[in-house]
């Protein structure tokens, strides 16, 4: 019933859900930083991968791209007095390059004030990267660890949702870094919640978008490891036999540490990958909140050295949902006391029915009050309860050995 309500509510009330409608016509432009041919090829590869994917809430979407002469004032990272580098171009791009030179020669000094760059137009307008968010949130992590680590769980949940969307397309991102994850504000009037805990802008959940697919790998591709700039983020099986199937899972485990203001375990201790490490060899995450232990367990499962025993990103998604919205410890203890599988499934089904009923009541209350709308966090919870099943919950409970 709730699943039908979920889909119908999305279609009939799209303005309430930033997850399915971007209400602004503002477009955002990205400019390739380098003029080097190799860099532009990586940029085009990133575009090709993104455009081959179906639309998803947590994957960056492109409206178009083109090669343009960009004024140096729009390239703050470059020295305006630096000479333009001449590079050997292939036959397809030589005509464009020659035409650009002829146009530049008509105006004295123009070549020093413009650079040829790839420009990409996207729908989403990010206000910061996750790297910026983590850096500025260090004091908040110390002062309010429960609030901050809950935000981390919600951002990781969105990341897992985006990565899980890549799986049917046989795409692996392979370069999951804090700076490659963008944050977009939920626009005013679409995610404002009347509940007090969501009125603080510092705790309001942002939409996470996975970007920069320049290192993305397709199922049939074979890649030279020497071209990868940072092997400290590569899972052990990639270095040995060049398999990328669960690379994103491994890098998500690293991101858990980094989002909790801890260093990459394999960057701090490179010898870990050279030996048969276990989860006990990984750094301990300090228990600052009710989420710390769960994040420690999840990191260990994602960073398992054996890819066949590493959990899937879909399992990580369900795990984060359980960590955020239950079942809680009291229910898990009840499940432990039951010897029959049928009895355990009955308890889980009753819990699901109760949570779904309470959520329907919450939606009904918000429908009455026209000044309130559904927050992104509530919408994520709705997704969880709408599509969760006794089987998926049982699988995660068994996986984490919580019974």
Automatic annotation (TrEMBL):
What positions does the domain Protein kinase occupy?
17-320
Region feature Disordered, mapped onto this chain: 85-116
InterPro entries cross-referenced by the UniProt entry: Kinase-like_dom_sf, MitoQC_Scaffold_Kinases, Prot_kinase_dom, Tyr_kinase_AS
A GO-annotated cellular component: actin cytoskeleton
Protein location: Cell junction, Focal adhesion; Cytoplasm, Cytoskeleton
Entry keyword set: Cell junction, Cytoplasm, Cytoskeleton, Phosphoprotein
Q: Does Phosphoprotein show up as a keyword for this record?
A: yes
Domain of life of the source: Eukaryota
Q: What GO molecular functions are on record for this protein?
A: ATP binding; protein kinase activity
- Quote the protein name from its UniProt record: Inactive tyrosine-protein kinase PEAK1
Species per Swiss-Prot/TrEMBL record: Scyliorhinus torazame
Recite the lineage of the species. Answer: Eukaryota, Metazoa, Chordata, Craniata, Vertebrata
């Amino acid at each position: 019933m709730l699943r039908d309500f979920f889909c119908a509510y999305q279609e009939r009330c799209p303005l309430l859900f930033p997850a399915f409608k971007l209400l602004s016509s503002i477009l955002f432009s990205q400019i390739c930083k380098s003029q080097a041919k190799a860099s532009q090829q990586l940029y085009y590869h990133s575009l090709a991968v993104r455009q081959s994917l179906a639309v998803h809430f947590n994957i960056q979407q492109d409206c178009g791209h083109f090669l343009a002469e960009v004024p140096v004032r729009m390239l703050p990272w470059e020295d305006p007095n630096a000479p333009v580098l001449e590079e050997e171009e292939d036959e397809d791009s030589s005509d464009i390059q020659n035409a650009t030179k002829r146009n530049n020669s008509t105006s004295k000094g123009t070549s020093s004030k413009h650079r040829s760059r790839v420009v990409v137009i996207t729908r989403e307008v990010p206000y910061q990267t996750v790297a910026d968010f983590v850096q500025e949130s260090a004091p908040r992590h110390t002062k309010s660890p429960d609030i901050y680590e809950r935000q981390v769980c919600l951002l990781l949940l969105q990341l897992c949702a985006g990565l899980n969307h890549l799986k049917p397309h046989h795409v692996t991102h392979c370069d999951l870094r804090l700076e490659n994850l963008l944050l977009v504000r939920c626009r005013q009037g679409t995610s404002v919640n009347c509940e007090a805990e969501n009125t603080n802008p510092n705790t309001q959940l942002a939409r996470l978008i996975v970007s920069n697919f320049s290192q993305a790998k397709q199922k049939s591709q074979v890649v030279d490891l020497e071209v990868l700039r940072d092997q400290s983020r590569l899972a052990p099986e990639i270095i040995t036999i060049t398999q990328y199937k669960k690379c994103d899972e491994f890098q998500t485990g690293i991101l858990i540490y980094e989002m909790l203001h801890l260093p990459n375990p394999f960057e701090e201790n490179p010898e870990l990958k050279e030996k048969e490490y276990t989860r006990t060899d990984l750094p301990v995450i300090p228990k600052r909140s009710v989420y710390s232990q769960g994040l420690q367990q999840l990191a260990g499962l994602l960073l398992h050295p054996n890819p066949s025993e590493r959990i899937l990103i879909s399992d990580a998604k369900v795990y984060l949902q359980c960590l955020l919205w239950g079942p809680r410890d009291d229910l898990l203890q009840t499940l432990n006391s039951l010897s029959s599988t049928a009895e355990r499934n009955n308890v889980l089904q009753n819990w699901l029915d109760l949570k779904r009923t309470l959520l329907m009541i919450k939606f009904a209350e918000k429908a009455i009050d026209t000044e309130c709308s559904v927050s992104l966090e509530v919408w994520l919870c709705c997704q969880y309860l709408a599509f969760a099943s006794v089987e998926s919950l049982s699988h995660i409970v068994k996986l984490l050995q919580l019974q």
